[in-house]
Sequence to fold (789 residues):
Amino acid sequence: MTDLLYARAQMGLSLAFHIVFAAAGVALPVLMVLSDWKARRTGDSDYRKLSQKLAKGTAILFAVGAVSGTVLSFELGLLWPEFMGQYGEVIGLPFSLEGVAFFTEAIFLGIYLYGRERVSPGLHLFSGVMVAVSGAASAFFVTLVNVFMNDPSGFVATPHGPTDIEPLKAMFSPGWLTQTSHVLLSCYQASAFAMAGIHAFVLLRHPGSAFHRKALSVALPLACVTALLQPVVGDLSAKHVAKAQPVKLAAMEGQFETERGAPLRVGGFPDVETRTVSHALDIPNGLSILAFGDPDAEVKGLNEFPRDTWPPVAKVHMAFQVMVGTGSAMALLALVTLGYRWRRKAWPSGRKMMWAWLVSGPLGLVALEAGWLVTEWGRQPWIVRGVMRTADAVTPVPHLAAPFWTFTVVYLFLGVVVVALLKRQVADTLPDREPKGPDAKGGEAHVH
Amino acid sequence: MSTEAVLGFVLAGSFVLYALFGGADFGGGVWDLLAFGPRKAEQRALIARAMGPVWEVNHIWLILGVVLLFAGFPRAFATLSVALHVPLTLLLLGIVFRGAAFTFRTYDMRGDAAQRQWGLVFSGASIVAPLLLGMCVGAVASGSIRVEGRVVVSGFFASWLSPFAWAVGVLALALFAFLAAVFLTHEASGAELREDFRKRALGAGVAVFVAALVVLLLAREGAPRVWEGLSRSPFALALHGATGVAAVTAFALLWTHRFQWARLAAAFQAGLIVLGWAASQYPYLVVPDVTLQGAAAGPATQRLLLIALAVGAVTVIPSIALLFRVFRPRPDGASTMDSGH
Fold:
């Protein structure tokens, strides 16, 4: 492997790792505050316990997210010094605001986690709300940087770097609204599905556990609403890509030749040598309708673009299929669950539905990672699309294999530890470990 | 004052705050490792209790510094990222292990053996990270990072492995340990525990003095421009005089058990040391090839950055004040509920 590939692999590894914790840092505070609020409203100690458990989960995940985020802020320079040296000033503004949001999040998380006994209940809840709001703001600002890299604006490119810089214009580069909405939704969706999956798993073993049914009732509404909204926002996002980054769309869809009334290729393996997609299920005119709202619309193929500006077509296409596939499965499950809730006036608790939620638990994270791969691979060979190639931004420091393997081992280790710690937090709430008190009643719980 | 000078000043300010808060945090890790005596467990518990709510916040000052550097002075950031790639990567590993181990120790419920293991990782990383941080600062000040055009030509090792850089690393470590010990005298709830940290503070204070002296002696050869700045510019001289006064005052206050005031004096001392570094290498960001002005972003970016900083200050400062108010140390035996709310 070349040093460029090692640099890309290290950046990819760091981001793929950080994204999971960042998404949890955005969404878990919302779930934590929701259960806290339910506990206050109903006086139910289970919800209070749930909010405390979620707070512990947030503390662990946020800490790892904070250190891996610190790593990323340095890696931008350590791996891509020319990118930061030239474009740091163009996109520094959203980064600074992200810093402010992160600062606020850490401060109020400190108060929320350690201050339960020290501050008034109102201030405590307010701190939780501030954590949730600043977490969302921080994801919003950092996504704006990615929007810029995909669709740069607000400067004039010259061989010596950007001039006539307008930082505000760069901060809100085209497509910012759909991409930030898409990312924020995915954070909530991934975390809510993961949480629902965990509690469904426990409920399959201990169907009577009131605590876990209540926990599920906190996760399911967020999971269902986001899973249904996401396809709508994703479609808007894809329509923007179709217009603004046609080469990325062509790679996502395996569209090698420009054509009118292009079919939607579901699945399949693109081959750049033969310029065909094998084993795909074609839906006639599907792509033209989805991308441009017109069955006869012309979709630009990869043939319109110089070969050396193609992204890795097979990877982009397959990552996109994974994202859309998992997204559709989650939307379907959300529909069924909401239908059940509407007819029976209660969240589902049967074995089949619990199995469905257990299996779907990881799908949100899979979709999140796959979607991120689509946008990053799909931007290659550029680091700033059309302006700076990734290969021109990479550091001259040699032997990049060393830091790559070091971080790989470190992150694997941290991942294993985090999973073990979270597992013990969950195990602590199993019915047979709960203390038998005077009000520890068995039997079915009623959760509405 | 030009906008880049203002931004440079804010950058120095963020390093001062990182040295004070992040530094005390690193120092807490040092005393965790060096805990001994009959109150070993209490010492560690006090450190964990004092750090728990604030350690993440304390380290965001570093992120502020990094973001200001790449947004406000992108060429300097690019240069430093290449020249100091190795120590910065090691520093990052230190930061990752430190934060993760501290959190894992808090939430790992498997008992004492696991706690000790995480504690060792946490405190070990707390020694390595400040050392590397100081070595990077030493490299920047020494003038041994050389740039031609946009290319770093001085290699990836020599600049931060010089005797001068090592000495600055040791100074940073001693300074952070000193700060932490002084702060902990104020946080401690019992007289004996307070005395433990008073002794440690006095010892670390002596170490700071010795390390500072060595840095000064090595600066003549190892960092000629800083040496010149130190000995010629009247402003820098005054700054160093004030640092000396603060150091002596902090020592005297510790000696006479006036912990609340000692804390203030020690903070002044550490802050002035960092400002003294910044002042003695002004107007260079990376001595001798990158200046504030040469590396600065365009005027539009600079203005917007200052606005973003103002927005940030309005949001962050009251929040931090609230955080430290909520977790301020209580008089012995006070109730845990805050009657003020």
